[in-house]
């Protein structure tokens, strides 16, 4: 990003803030920040976001036992799993329309309840954005695994991440131009392929 805007590496100063500190209204001690900030209408009332640099793919969270029992990142296999979801979440119509499970989905109030349902074997699988699925599989579920991921283009309303800036930042136009150029020339796609597909080893559903 700095290179696209016109700065050498030695001209870049790094500072640290927590997620909560950065998302609060008011003066910032940085020009822009990258920390997996989802762009939402409410947040745009108090901070500025760049053009989105990443549209989060939806990924399938399971326990290792599901894989041991033959679950695969293929539509035919996914149909046979018992699915759970958060009522009203955008993942629910995606499951119903793309996967079309052979048994009724079970609905829960929030992500935590979905994960607890998986722990108690009420459900086999659930759909989360890829970064969340990776976190839940590695930290929350002792035997969690990410079975596969869908291209972000499969989702009508994907979770999009943007660089965060102070509200009314004079740099927004420059930052947007840099993000758009990285997108146009394929740089962002290459980074995503390397770090969100190859590095994580999460296959694309076929």
Terminus-to-terminus distance: 33 Å
Average predicted local confidence, pLDDT: 91
CATH superfamily of the largest domain: Periplasmic binding protein-like II
Percentage of helical residues? 25-40%
Largest sheet: 3 strands, antiparallel
- CATH architect. name of the largest domain: 3-Layer(aba) Sandwich
Q: Are there runs of 5+ residues with pLDDT below 50, and where?
A: none
> Which sequence of strands runs across the widest sheet?
6-3-7
- Beta-strand proportion: 15-25%
CATH class of the largest domain: Alpha Beta
State the oligomer: single chain
Global morphology: elongated
| SSE pattern | HHEEEHHEHEHEHEEEHH
Number of helical runs? 9
What is the CATH third-level topology name of the largest domain? Answer: D-Maltodextrin-Binding Protein, domain 2
Count of all domains: 2
> Nearest-angstrom radius of gyration?
19 Å
In total, how many beta strands?
A: 9
Strand-pairing-aware structural class: alpha+beta
Characterise this structure.
- With 206 residues, the protein is an alpha+beta fold.
- The protein has two domains: 2-54 and 159-198, Periplasmic binding protein-like II (D-Maltodextrin-Binding Protein, domain 2); 57-154, D-Maltodextrin-Binding Protein, domain 2.
- The chain has helices at residues 2-5, 19-23, 64-68, 75-79, 91-99, 111-119, 130-140, 172-184, 187-198; strands at residues 47-49, 54-55, 58-63, 84-86, 106-108, 125-129, 144-149, 160-161, 164-166.
- The strands form four sheets. It has a three-stranded antiparallel sheet. A two-stranded antiparallel sheet has the order 1-9. Strands 2-8 form a two-stranded antiparallel ribbon.
- The longest helix has 13 residues, at 172-184.
- The radius of gyration is 19 Å and the shape is elongated.
- The model has no long low-confidence stretch (mean pLDDT 91).
């Amino acid at each position: 990003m700095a290179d696209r805007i016109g700065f050498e590496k030695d001209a870049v100063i790094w500072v640290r803030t927590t997620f909560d500190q950065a998302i609060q209204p008011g003066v910032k001690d940085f020009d822009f920040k990258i920390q997996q900030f989802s762009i939402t209408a409410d947040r745009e009332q108090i901070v500025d976001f760049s053009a989105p640099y990443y549209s989060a793919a939806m990924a399938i969270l399971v326990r290792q036992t599901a894989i041991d029992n033959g679950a695969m990142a293929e539509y035919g296999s996914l149909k046979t799993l018992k699915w759970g979801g958060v009522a009203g979440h955008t993942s629910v119509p995606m499951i119903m329309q793309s996967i079309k499970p052979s048994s009724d989905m079970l609905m829960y109030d929030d992500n935590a309840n979905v994960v607890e349902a998986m722990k108690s074997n009420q459900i086999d699988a659930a759909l989360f954005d890829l970064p969340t699925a990776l976190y839940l599989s590695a930290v929350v579920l002792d035997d969690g695994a990410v079975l596969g991921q869908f291209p972000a283009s499969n989702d009508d309303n994907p979770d999009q991440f943007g660089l965060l800036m102070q509200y009314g930042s004079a740099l927004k136009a420059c930052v947007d131009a840099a993000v758009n150029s990285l997108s146009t020339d394929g740089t962002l796609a290459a980074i995503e392929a390397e770090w969100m597909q190859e590095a994580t080893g999460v296959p694309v559903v076929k």
